[in-house]
Design goal:
With 497 residues, the protein is an alpha/beta fold. The chain contains 18 helices and 18 strands. Helix 15 links the parallel strand 16 and strand 17. The structure holds adenosine-5'-diphosphate-glucose. The site of adenosine-5'-diphosphate-glucose has 24 residues, from helix 1, strand 12, strand 13 and helix 14. Adenosine-5'-diphosphate-glucose (ADQ) binds next to helix 1, strand 12, strand 13 and helix 14.
Length: 497
């Protein structure tokens, strides 16, 4: 263990909540998405630091709400400010119109606007200055995701020599897609300024290594297995894969609680006819919702006997509402739901129940617990935590998981899930039929296998394996500090003055 390590510092585009001004008071609501679900329990009570954008644009004095949230959350929060224009160019632009679609293999959705890149570098530089000003040399700085790839090179340019780790939550694309990026060499070079680069799966690391070998000269690679060492003149960097996970015990115990059981019973009471198929996704074109709806439509056409005996509950969490492509996607999903419901609904049975809102943990767990089938079919996904959450919450071992082979979770869950190509509508419909008719024994065995894997490789395993590779230590290197005990739950909304 490295004795000099002092604090765990996390940097991500957003702080783990969204702040809003409500007249004279403030409201913080939990951030949606996998990164927050995964990291909030890790930093809680450790007195560490989280650097990120709090969700407010412009020049607003954020010290009072930040002080309140830091005092009560169990770690300190350091905001990074942004103007509306910067947000548009760096976040909406380079992050979500270039890196997000390209890294999910959807290059035709990209808008390679040159001005985006300048804004991206400038915001990465701002994150770097905030990190430099609020950390000490012994802190371990762990930067997250595609918005902040250039933070290490900016920090190095400022003379910061702290230990820096990076984790990419989304996939890394294959060479022939990555090659389209106008800033491909800059991105690869910037990543090499971290000390450890982590990907979700072996597939992503393989793609990255292939790109490095193609574009970076004088590169040597040593070792094999989960973490390898890459050297370029003047730098040595470790590169590994660390499949992210969930707090298994929290989901599993939560699902057994009385209030979740009651809500689950109530949900099934309201949808009494047959089996429930569940889809839960952030609103995003990578999640494959349109293909999924068409597969469900195909199932009902091909198996008229299932009509009235199977119901799809599709929950869509609002996301990136200010991006036009996301607004169009919402309209298209609603049109498809309306069309399918219009075609098949009969008195007493509506085939698709569509919810477009965020759910609290109790409701989400209740849906997980009550659904006989989870239909998780992203076109590509870094990991997909919903798949793992569904399994952890399936306390009675009666559920079946249909999972896209392009989700990062597929290699880990392949012994229990029914893997499908999400573009293959007939195959997905076939898997639905197979899951619908699967006997209890097979469901139990498959679910049991998946639960064992998720329980063993949970979120604490993930953090520890990353930290072991980064600093030869584990989360225990940053012990829980009495005076930082949290009194608010960042996964619930809070209002304060
Ligand atoms: P996301 O694309 O956000 O994450 P995912 O991993 O599935 O995808 O996480 C979604 C999270 O949102 C889950 O934790 C889930 O509980 C929560 N959620 C979903 N529906 C909700 C609802 N209706 N109400 C409230 N919460 C809801 C990115 C990458 C993924 C990667 C994660 C973590 O795109 O591939 O798995 O980061 O690395």
């Amino acid at each position: 263990m490295n004795d000099e390590i002092r604090r765990l510092v996390i940097a991500s585009n957003r702080l783990p909540f969204v702040l809003e001004r409500l007249g004279d008071s403030w409201r913080s609501t939990p951030g949606s998405g996998g990164l927050v679900t995964a990291l909030a329990p890790v930093l809680r009570d450790r007195g560490g630091l989280w650097v990120g954008w709090p969700g407010i644009v412009g020049d607003v004095d954020l010290s009072p709400p930040m002080a309140y949230l830091s005092r009560n959350a169990g770690f300190t929060m350091q905001p990074v400010s942004m103007s509306q224009e910067e947000l548009e160019m760096y976040y909406r632009g380079l992050s979500n119109e270039v890196l997000w679609p390209l890294f999910h293999d959807l290059q035709s959705y990209c808008n390679f606007e040159p001005a985006y890149w300048k804004a991206y570098l400038s915001i990465n530089r701002r994150f770097a200055s905030v990190i430099r000003d609020s950390t000490l040399p012994g802190d371990f700085v762990w930067v997250h995701d595609y918005h902040l790839i250039c933070v290490a090179s900016e920090l190095r340019a400022m003379g910061v020599s702290s230990s820096l780790g990076f984790f990419l939550h989304i996939p890394f694309p294959p060479l022939d897609i990555f090659v389209k990026l106008p800033w491909r060499t800059e991105i690869l070079r910037a990543l090499l300024d971290f000390d450890l680069i982590g990907f979700q799966t072996a597939r992503d690391r393989r793609n990255f290594m292939h790109c490095l070998r193609t574009f970076v000269r004088d590169l040597t690679v040593e070792g094999k297995g989960q973490v390898v060492t890459v050297s370029v003149p003047g730098r040595t960097v470790r590169v590994g894969y660390f499949p992210i996970s969930i707090d298994y015990d929290e989901f599993s115990l939560g699902a057994r609680s009385e209030e979740v059981s009651e809500t689950a019973w109530y949900i099934h009471e309201k949808i009494p006819e047959g089996k429930i198929v569940l889809g839960v996704d952030r609103l995003d074109y990578t999640k494959g919702i349109r293909y999924r709806l068409r597969a469900f439509d195909h199932l009902l056409r091909e198996h008229p006997d299932l009509r009235g005996r199977i119901t799809l509950v599709q929950i869509v969490v609002p996301s990136r509402r200010d991006i036009p492509m996301y607004r169009d996607l919402k309209i298209e999903i609603e049109r498809l739901v309306g069309e399918i419901n219009g075609r098949f609904t009969v008195s007493g049975w509506v085939p698709i129940h569509y919810l477009h809102r965020s759910l609290d943990r109790r409701e989400l767990l209740a849906y997980y617990r009550t659904a006989e089938i989870a239909l998780i079919t992203p076109l590509k996904d870094g990991m997909n935590l919903v798949a793992k959450e569904y399994c952890a919450a399936n306390t009675e071992l009666t559920g079946a998981l249909i999972l896209s082979e392009f989700a990062g979770a597929a290699p880990q869950l392949q012994r229990g899930a029914l893997l499908v190509n999400p573009y293959d509508i007939e195959e997905v419909a076939g898997a639905l039929f197979r899951a619908w008719s699967m006997d209890a024994e097979e469901r139990r065995e498959r679910m049991n296998r998946m639960q064992q894997t998720i329980q063993r490789y949970d979120i604490y395993w993930w953090v520890d394996s990353f930290l072991r590779a980064a600093i030869a230590g584990t989360l225990d290197a940053f012990p829980v500090i009495e005076e930082y005990q949290s009194s608010i739950n960042l996964l619930s909304p809070v209002e304060f003055d």
